[in-house]
Structures are given as C-alpha cells and as structure tokens.
Amino acid sequence: MTPQEGTNSKLQNPHDPAVCEHISRMLARICDKWTLLVVRTLGRGPLRFNALRREVGEISQKMLTQTLRELERNGLVSRTVTPVRPPQVEYALTPLGKDFLKPVRGLSQWVALHSQELTDSRIAYDRSVARD
Questions:
Q1: Which of 3, 32, 39, 104 is the most buried (most CB within 10 A)?
Q2: Contact (Cβ atoms closer than 8 angstroms) between residue 91 and residue 78
Q3: Burial of 78 per CB tally in 10 Å (0-12, 13-18, 19+)
Q4: In terms of DSSP H, where are the helices of 7-60?
Q5: Mean of per-residue pLDDT scores for the chain
Q6: Is residue 94 part of a domain?
Q7: What is residue 76's three-state secondary structure?
Q8: Which structural domain, as residue segments, surrounds residue 53?
Q9: Is the whole model's pTM more than 0.70, yes or no?
C-alpha cells in the first residue's frame, strides 16, 4: 500500500494536500445521495433488499445493488444470506456503519434545520441570475 492509500499517516497532518486528496476520494465513495439514504434507513435496523428499496424510495434495483456493494466493500454494511428457498438476504449496518450513522444523522438534522434558508437562497440566486 502506498502512503497515499493509508489512513493512519494521513490523519497526522490534515492540511497536507495528499491527505485532502485521500479524504476527498473517501467522501466521494461514501457520501453520495443513495449511500446517505441507505445508511440512514438501515440505521433503524436490518432490512431485506426489497424492504430496503421500498423504504429508500425512488432508487432503482441496479442503483441499490451498486450502493449496497460499495457500502459492503467499505465495511459499512454487512450482508447475511439465510439458506432457505428462496435465499433470504438481509443488510445491516456494521459497527463502522453505525459510527458513520452519527454524522449522517447530524447532516440530516442540519438540512432540516436550515431547509427554508437554503430554499430562500436558491430562489434569490435564481432570480438574480435570471435578471443578468
């Protein structure tokens, strides 16, 4: 593993450009729209695929599959297969995923708290751009 790929050495100097690049790559992997929604939904407890899809909302089967694979790859979600016919697959947050849930919930609360301000700002900006 190259020094850029490791995390321990990177966290020693958060202002190092290599650290910023690493953090940026990690955030891109774990902070997209669907990841945040899936983590937030699984924060209420383990779910099977179709139940998770219903709870998340307008996510396609393909996108949910990709998101779950990436979350599992990064150690945030576990996948448990029960050997029955047909096999049952359940997804749950790992301890790392539960720890990640804390900032996800914090971000959700911040958005809810400032939702009107954000909406007002977008409207004002769009009006000013439309006049130009």
A1: 39
A2: yes
A3: middle
A4: 8-11, 17-30, 33-42, 49-56
A5: 88
A6: yes
A7: coil
A8: 31-131
A9: yes
